[in-house]
């Protein structure tokens, strides 16, 4: 049993990037699917596929690398809010990652979204992770 599925998700991606893997498989959940969609929309991953044949299902993520230098689009994944210590922020104090070059993923009352989308909607929430 995994006590922190989001940290497990981020660690699997981080390990795959460090090992220069092209594809990583992760057990699926609704929150992981939403985070994967955000990573795809923001250009951090090449593609993704949700496979629902098995009971929990899996997420296959194709990682994105620079064609010449082979450097990953994802340079840093950092879990912020943990099960033992939740981190919440209001709409007026939303975090900026790498001076706006990275994104923070938040769980808000309007669903999972980035810090920039939350700023437009003027909502706060739980800061799940930073990605740059």
Describe the structure.
The structure is a single chain. This protein has 132 residues and is an alpha+beta fold. Helices cover 25% and strands 30% of the residues. The chain has 3 helices and 8 strands; from the N terminus they run αβαββββββαβ. The chain has helices spanning 5-18, 30-41, 115-121; strands at residues 23-27, 45-51, 58-63, 77-79, 88-89, 103-108, 111-114, 125-131. The strands form 2 sheets. Strands 4, 5, 6, 7 and 8 form a 5-stranded antiparallel beta sheet that branches. It has a 3-stranded antiparallel beta sheet with strand order 1-3-2, covered by helices on one side. The longest helix is centred in the N-terminal third of the chain and has 14 residues, at 5-18. It is globular, with a radius of gyration of 15 Å.
Task: Give the gist of this structure.
By secondary structure, this protein is of the alpha+beta class.
Global structural class: alpha+beta
From the alpha-carbon coordinates, what is the Rg to the nearest angstrom? Answer: 15 Å
**Could you give a short account of the major beta sheet?**
5 strands, antiparallel
Shape: globular
| Global mean pLDDT | 94
The counted number of beta strands is: 8
The residue ranges in which pLDDT falls below 50 over 5 or more consecutive positions are: none
Summarize the amount of helix as a percent range. Answer: 25-40%
Beta fraction = 25-35%
Q: So how many helices?
A: 3
The helix-strand sequence is HEHEEEEEEHE
Span between N and C termini?
A: 29 Å
């Amino acid at each position: 049993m995994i006590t922190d599925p989001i940290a497990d998700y981020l660690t699997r991606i981080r390990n795959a990037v460090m090992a220069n893997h092209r594809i990583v498989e992760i057990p699926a959940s609704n929150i992981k699917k939403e985070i994967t969609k955000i990573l795809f929309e923001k250009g951090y991953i090449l593609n993704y596929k949700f496979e629902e044949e098995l009971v929990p299902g899996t997420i296959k993520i194709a990682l994105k690398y620079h064609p010449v230098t082979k450097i990953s689009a994802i340079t840093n994944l950092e879990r912020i809010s943990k099960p033992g210590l939740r981190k919440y922020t209001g709409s007026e104090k939303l975090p900026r990652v790498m001076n706006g070059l990275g994104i923070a993923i938040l769980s808000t009352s309007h669903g999972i979204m980035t810090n920039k989308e939350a700023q437009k909607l003027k909502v706060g929430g739980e800061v799940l992770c930073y990605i740059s």
